[in-house]
UniProtKB/TrEMBL annotation:
This is Translation factor GUF1 homolog, mitochondrial. Keywords: GTP-binding, Hydrolase, Membrane, Mitochondrion, Mitochondrion inner membrane, Nucleotide-binding, Protein biosynthesis. It is a peripheral membrane protein. Belongs to the GTP-binding elongation factor family. LepA subfamily. Belongs to the TRAFAC class translation factor GTPase superfamily. Classic translation factor GTPase family. LepA subfamily. CDD domains: LepA (cd01890), lepA_C (cd03709). GTP binds at residues 50-57, 115-119, 169-172. It comes from the Eukaryota. It comes from Pararge aegeria aegeria. It is an enzyme of class 3 (hydrolase). One of its GO terms (molecular function) is GTPase activity. Gene3D superfamilies: 3.30.70.240, Elongation factor 4, C-terminal domain (3.30.70.2570), Elongation Factor G (Translational Gtpase), domain 3 (3.30.70.870), P-loop containing nucleotide triphosphate hydrolases (3.40.50.300), Translation factors (2.40.30.10). Promotes mitochondrial protein synthesis. May act as a fidelity factor of the translation reaction, by catalyzing a one-codon backward translocation of tRNAs on improperly translocated ribosomes. Binds to mitochondrial ribosomes in a GTP-dependent manner. The gene is jg15983. The lineage of its organism: Eukaryota, Metazoa, Ecdysozoa, Arthropoda, Hexapoda.
Amino acid sequence: MVRLLNKIWNFNSCAYNIRILKSSFRRCSSSTNDVEAVDMSRIRNFSIVAHVDHGKSTLADRLLELTGAIKPGNENSQVLDQLQVERERGITVKAVTASLNYKYKNEDYLLNLIDTPGHVDFSNEVVRSVKACQGVIFLVDANEGVQAQTVAVHSLAKRNNLIIIPTLNKVDLPRADPENTKSQLKSLFNIDPDTVLSISAKKGWGVQELLEAVITRIPPPKADLNKHFKATIIDTWHDKYRGVMCLAYIESGSIEVGQTVKWRSDLKQHTLKYLALLRPNEEPIEKAVAGQVVMVGCGPKGGGSVGDELLSLESAEETKVASAPTVKHMVYAGIFPSDQSQHTQLSDAIKKLALNDSAVSVNVDSSPALGQGWRLGFLGLLHLDVFTQRLLQEHKAEAILTAPSVPYKIKVKGAKAIKQYKGEEVIITNPLLLPDPHNIVEYYEPYVIGTIITPVEYIGAVNTLCVDRRGTPLPSSSVDEKMTMMQFILPLSEVVIDFHDTLKSLTSGFASFDYQDYGFHSSSLVRMDILINGALVDELTTIVHTSRLEYSARRLTTKLKEMIPRQMVQIAIQAVVSGKVYSRETLKAYRKDVTAKLYGGDVTRRKKLLKQQAEGKKKMRSVANIKIPRNTFVDVLKR
């Protein structure tokens, strides 16, 4: 009887699954017909770009609701922020695409929306996204006005010859000042105030007019349907069952499921197995045409990389190896497994995550204390922090992080005598690899041009902060009566760690900051080591400027004293440069009263117990393993 019931249950389950598959097939067929019906002249590819926290994700939610992609409601907030870290921190980390259908003047349009991050540490996502766009919604908070990253994204859009739709958001708030913000746009970017749209993404005011402006102002993609198929990869990620999946912008021709294609980087032939639109959930299609942004997959062994091109076999393009856009890493840090038995798991997690985040560079590294690991390059400290958080949340991989450092350049004396260096000028990403000072002719430090937009009442505080960080002022300009734009040439090492947090604190959160590379310049640098009870802690070795040597030494040792938990033995913390101790802190040991059990008798009994305790502590000190908390390596560098 039980067997018969199980068979009936299995039969019903199979029938239910068949019905689900049939309905999925019908949805796929209808979506395919919709795609084929859309003419290329009615395709619009656009991004939303803005400073952080100016309402990009909220506007994306309203656009999804207006086009019927999602149902209105509080449960559907931040739909495109799909990562757990994005929802926890309230920031956009990954640029996400959504293909939307919209009817305008009785004609069907396909709108490919890309929601981009606003923080400077994720600017690489914005750079890649605009490659697939013909225009951008240039979003500005009507309360805050123009801010530093606003200037950066406007410059990026101009460099790529994109149509800009200036839009003021949050006009419903009491502090909103649309007229003043329009005058800022006029003075900084020469934008006609009459072309600026006003919306409230939260309440939905003016969003429909903005969507219609996207259709009327942004031109269709300049793609050729008659040429052979060619698509540029703008994003990649790893799927557990399907392998490497890619987001591609089709530049020419058309593509169908089952078609044989090749990557320009390796020219091996692959069969296209997966083709879908992101709405924002996957919607499988059978065919895609030039001008579209689609998800493609060639199976577990057919993955590409960001910047690569997917070609048809008939393509007449010359077979040269494609390379991803150059990314200039600002921060390097070592990542090691908490236990070497977890090395393989962490290795797989880093590879999968680096595939999804092309701005990360990965190189094998090793440490005497932590074993085998990796040296990773990031665009900033927030980028590093988000990467390690995603490792833990998405892959359950615990890692120990070493002290972050910026890359330096050195000119080596007699480079042939130093085997690991092939040329006279060497980039140093790990302070431990810095050669002996006698072999170095000159040190070079990376600099950036920092742009700060701040209220006029904080000009003095901002100027003091930048000069204290070894900054050189450049000419400033007025944004309006209340705001001014200041620029400084700053050492990168003084910027990436905590400059932004300190700036926000000094200006009550009103100032904004952005920076761009200014190259390497000659500087006076030394390597500073940290000794714990006389043992070198490789992970805390840093390169510092001589003018800030004593300050950095005192700060590091004091911070370590606060962060390292007390042990059963006394701990000496020293900052040493070329054998000279510049700062020392002592962490007292826990003290146990071994004489508490004595209730009388001769004093020699008390002395005997204290002597035994002293000998035990001496022995323990010689073999003690001082445990440093894993967060110490990042937190210790924050002022």
